[in-house]
Amino acid sequence: MTTEPPHPPAGTPRPAAFLDRDGTLNLDVHYAHRPDQIVWIAGAADALRRLNEAGWWVFVVTNQSGVAQGLYDEDSVQALHAWMAKDLARQGARVDAFYYCPHHPREGAPPYRRACNCRKPAPGMLLQAMADYPVDRARSFMLGDRPRDVEAGEAAGVDSYLYEGGNLDAVVSRLMAAHGG
């Protein structure tokens, strides 16, 4: 699911950075769903701006099982993503699309309690972004703070890396250089 329908331009495929949200772009406070819970990781806006200026797509791919568990609803996820996009824009950075999975295989109630192909480590969110946008898969990467993020990226056919902390801009700069960007 996306926060809003993507409106990508047609054209030549471009490399993409697939980024986990909680623990990679912002501190993981467990089930963040309000703007007052968001604290950006050091270098987050700089990293996105670097990607934007180099012509890369930037996609956030995030499991949001708090929806399935009844802790918050999809409207809250979408409102938070809209706030994040606006806050990043104030810092000169852009996310091209937010993709989220509201499901959990064992917790919550239908329709959210179910197995799906979008919950990481499944690659569904990445594959959907690649269907929605012209992505150069060979030059793209996935970065997240959990093994399931790496597994999702690998299953989608992109190089994948575990974010272990530090300035996100420095990490992204190294990954871009390794991927020809």
From TrEMBL:
Gene3D superfamilies the UniProt entry points to: HAD superfamily/HAD-like (3.40.50.1000)
One BP annotation, GO: carbohydrate metabolic process
Site (Contributes to substrate recognition): R119
Location in the cell: Cytoplasm
Residues bound to Zn(2+): C101, H103, C116, C118
Cellular component terms per the entry's GO annotation: cytoplasm
Entry superkingdom: Bacteria
InterPro entries registered for this protein in UniProt: HAD-like_sf, HAD-SF_hydro_IIIA, HAD_sf, Heptose_bisP_phosphatase, Histidinol-phos
Enzyme active site: D20 (nucleophile), D22 (proton donor)
Broad class of enzyme this protein falls into: hydrolase
Binding site for Mg(2+): D20, D22, D145
Cofactor list: Mg(2+); Zn(2+)
Glycosyltransferase is among the record's keywords: no
Entry's EC annotation: 3.1.3.-
Molecular function via GO: metal ion binding; phosphatase activity
Main location: cytoplasm
UniProt keyword terms in alphabetical order: Carbohydrate metabolism, Cytoplasm, Hydrolase, Magnesium, Metal-binding, Zinc
Site (Stabilizes the phosphoryl group): T62, K120
Family: Belongs to the gmhB family.
Protein known as: D,D-heptose 1,7-bisphosphate phosphatase
Organism: Roseospira marina
